[in-house]
Amino acid sequence: MQLCNIGHNFDYETEKVVRIFLPDEKINIVHDMADGENTAVCMLSDSAASAKAKLYGKTAQKTEKVDAQSSEKQKELAVARCLYNCLSEITGYKSPWGILTGIRPAKLFSHIPNAKDVFINDYLCLASKADLCAECYESERKITGLSTEKSFSLYVSVPFCPSRCSYCSFVSHSVENAKAIIPDYLKRLNKELEETGKIAKDLKLRLQTVYVGGGTPTSISASGLKALLASIKDNFDFSTVREFTVEAGRPDTIDREKLEVIKRAGATRISINPQSMNDSVLEAIGRRHTAEQMRKAFCIAREVGFNNINTDIIAGLSGDTVESFKNTLHEIIRLNPESVTVHSLSVKRAADITRRGELPEFKTGADAALMVDFARSLLAENGFLPYYMYRQSKTVGNLENVGYAKPGFEGLYNVYIMDETHTILACGASAVTKLKEPGGNNIERIFNFKYPYEYINRFDEILSRKEAIKEYYDKYSECNK
User: Fold this and answer.
1) Residues ≥6 apart with Cβ < 8 Å to 105
2) Nearest to residue 79, comparing CAs of 19, 130, 11?
3) What structural domains and CATH numbers belong to the chain?
4) Residue 460, C-beta contacts closer than 8 angstroms, at least 6 positions apart
5) pLDDT tens digits, residue range 335-382?
């Protein structure tokens, strides 16, 4: 599509609106007038914002008044609404989030006076989504209030899985193919944890939460997992830790020995993630486990002594229907976990399903919307409340990912990472350290190499980048003298 922006520089915002309707379209932005099929023109004058779109043999045109008293943000929103309403009229599609495209809607909600009205009237969100934001904000506010200027969380990456799911775009490698490099990877990860722990100690930072994720941490051996968790405990002061999560992940990687290793290491929370409880759907997405394996893994976790278990499910999976998704949710509730995270399928460019040309159509988004609405209703009936939320690009139906929990079982790390509450020190391949300004809003990132073989072969560079953590905190301590 050719996107013509005249009289303004709202290129980012208008492109994001087009991507709501045409997520994979190549968009060419120009600042001259153009006409013809597959074209949208967005104009701003002293008195009006307007848009005209030609698509699929149809034309639509919208206008909104603006004046000299309108702020740049108000003008931007007016232009975006005009473009959105044109494309909505042509396609017959309305996004539940309107023109709102950010990752952290609850964080935005917290910064806006009369946020619910603004979300509905200015951003064109459904009232139900504005209500969801309000609930998540209230829960997040209580959790973020536990953090101090010296607080930080630790993320540890184990980027290996038993197999790759068709929708996955994470940098992870199958254990079968990566078996030879796992010992070297874990050896270097131990060294990175050691050096990172020293830095945290020198800076007198206080560890709040620990999250071991991936990948699937339980895809490595019980002995490897035991050594890794011991390294985390040995190199960091756990006296201030409120939550220690290990993502057990796929049921086909879980056994009693590994769960006992995790429990003895002091983990307070685990996540077991079936994504679906329907075997035909699991097969369609490339999972090598069954719903029965999920039930057995969950029971073993209870027997081992875990009293805080999260489960992940996904709305909009290939082969899933509204009815089969409802069956998944009923099955999960029968297991009675402490929290349930409901993801909406997001198909990234690197995922196998995208490369095979199986990208879902708009109608899949309509079914996914029914799924997430049903999840919210049924989970509420069973005592689960929304406590954090985020959105991703290329999500079917432009929907959201929401964590639901029974009161007192909210995943603290999830809130801290999404709200960007405090520093996250991250170790391992593809891990990203986020440094948060003490008492401020500035954030700087330190990226580790994505792939395990890069991480191993260029490990000295990983360690040298850690020096930036000290430099960052030194900079702000100097400013506050």
Assistant:
1) 97, 119, 129, 133, 389, 391, 400
2) 11
3) 1-93 (3.30.160), 138-465 (3.80.30.20)
4) none
5) 999 999 999 998 654 444 333 333 344 567 889 999 999 999 999 999
